[in-house]
């Protein structure tokens, strides 16, 4: 297992130790950015990651923090959803927030877990009280 104890252990820009070029945290060239940085600028990666950034962890020296890097020149603009897609998403979320028992929008997504069985908290609590009283 590789041990990453200091930042110098993570520096491999010519891909001799790793399958892709690797840079220490914060030391990547300016044209390589993370997915989050691309999203903030309104872009999405147009290809697979071309490099990675690693930062050693003190508690787990064999498992460093990893961030994939993408080339800005290959980035493409983010896709913009159509009004029909936005409407479909709104309908799906509204259906997840609607309680099947009382048929009201409760303002949060209902979990289909065994505890509530897809009901809102009020309906689940009422059903629990009925079961305990019987």
Across the major sheet, the strand order is: 1-4-5-2
Distance between the termini: 60 Å
Globally, the shape reads: elongated
Helix/strand-derived category reads: alpha+beta
Mean residue pLDDT: 84
| Rg from alpha-carbon coordinates | 24 Å
Q: Give the helix proportion (percent range).
A: 25-40%
Total helix count? 3
Quick one: biggest sheet? 4 strands, mixed
Order of helical and strand elements: EEHEEEEHH
Low-confidence stretches at least 5 residues in length (pLDDT < 50)?
none
What's the SSE blueprint?
Layout: E1 22-24, E2 32-33, H1 35-40, E3 43-44, E4 51-55, E5 65-71, E6 76-77, H2 83-97, H3 121-133
Parallel strand pairs: 1-4
Antiparallel strand pairs: 2-5, 3-6, 4-5
Short description:
It contains three helices and six strands; from the N terminus they run ββαββββαα. By secondary structure, it is an alpha+beta fold. The strands form two sheets. It has a four-stranded mixed beta sheet. A two-stranded antiparallel ribbon has the order 3-6.
Protein model, in words:
By secondary structure, the chain is an alpha+beta fold. Helix content is 25%, strand content 16%. The chain contains 3 helices and 6 strands. It has a 4-stranded mixed sheet. The longest helix has 15 residues, at 83-97. The protein is elongated. 13% of the residues are buried.
Give keywords.
single chain; 134 residues; alpha+beta; four-stranded mixed beta sheet; 3 helices; 25% helix
